[in-house]
Amino acid sequence: MFTILVVDDEPNVRIPVCRMLSQLTGVDNVLEAGDGEEALKLLDQHEVQLIITDIRMPRMDGLELAGRVKDRFPNSQLYILTGHAEFDYALKAMEHQVAGYLLKPLSKQKLLDVFDAAYAKYRERYHVHQVDTIRSSALLEKRIHDLLHDLPLPKFDENLIPPFEQISLVSFSTRDLQSLGEPSVRYFIRNSAYEAFGKLGVPVVCLEERLITIVLFTARFDRALWEELVNETVLWIQEKLRIPIKTGYGGHSSDIGDIGMMYVRCVVNLGFTELSRRGASERLAPIVRSLIAYIHKEYAGSAQLADFAQTHQVNANYLSNLFHQETGMTYSQYLTHHRLMQAKRLLRESNLKIYEVCEQAGYRDPAYFSRIFKMAEGMSPNDYRLCASLSQH
């Protein structure tokens, strides 16, 4: 939308100029003000692309207005409107980097020339902004996708992360954990999710063949609106795909480093780990079944993917990608999940101290173990043990 503001204390000058500008093709809105102070109030309320202002006006003149515009509204192009006798005065306006000056009386052709020049700069700036926005959005999606799958965020890309007080995460998949449809359908769902969750904060939508994950950055979290949007999303995805959809909640956190663990909660809640446990399932490649058995046996030790790959003479990158493709989790995420499952079993069934549970579950740092346990379960290991004990009585 292209908006013009005309500032002049003389109505017999201001009104005809506004009338001429409003007739130009491409002009969406023409505002008018009688002095600089009135103009600033309008600039606070409207996004203005072109300002045409007189110099000599009461309360705040055009030069002071030009200085304010330069500091507060740098994307607005400002032209000084002056008489021949004020020519030297008008030159001082160049110190405020005004776009140019116009001599009274104004012709329609001169106004058209000014508008054409301003509109061309506006379109160029808009195009550059759109390209930058698209590139930044795509890179942000890539970085969030990497965080979901345990890849670190590069230091030089940290500025991509939107300001936030809380991060919320939810994933959607079909009941049978199969494909969410053709790429065109998934992209329709992606765009709709951006529109819906944009009401609550800054969403990032990550698409995979069997999963759509929404990571929401919020300054002030509204739980009721969040739950309403999640439920509405399930309904319109089901309507679009005409198949049942289920939801996996990843929880909430104020630490971006928790995104990977939140994603694990999502895929666990959706049932991807149950699929991984079907050792005899023909859906899993034999090498993946062997790798899962290796995790179940060696989880308390190092359980390194590279060691398994070397023993079985398989390329580690290929094996990692295959595991992720078939289970919906990265190798490290599945290993973490299994270790936490064993830790929960030990907390329920033994009187081991927390640091002993930590060691037997494959962790060497009790503080780190407690943090990821709380992130995954929503409570500390001690609280989990207490709840488990109470539920047995």
Automatic annotation (TrEMBL):
Domain Response regulatory: 3-119
Post-translational modification 4-aspartylphosphate, affected residues: 54
TM region positions: none
Keyword entries, A-Z: DNA-binding, Phosphoprotein, Transcription, Transcription regulation
Domain HTH araC/xylS-type span(s) in chain numbering: 289-387
Pfam families to which the protein is assigned, alphabetical: HTH_18, Response_reg
Protein name: Response regulator
PROSITE patterns tied to this protein: HTH_ARAC_FAMILY_1, HTH_ARAC_FAMILY_2, RESPONSE_REGULATORY
InterPro entries for the chain: CheY-like_superfamily, Homeodomain-like_sf, HTH_AraC, HTH_AraC-typ_CS, Sig_transdc_resp-reg_receiver, Tscrpt_reg_AraC-type_HTH
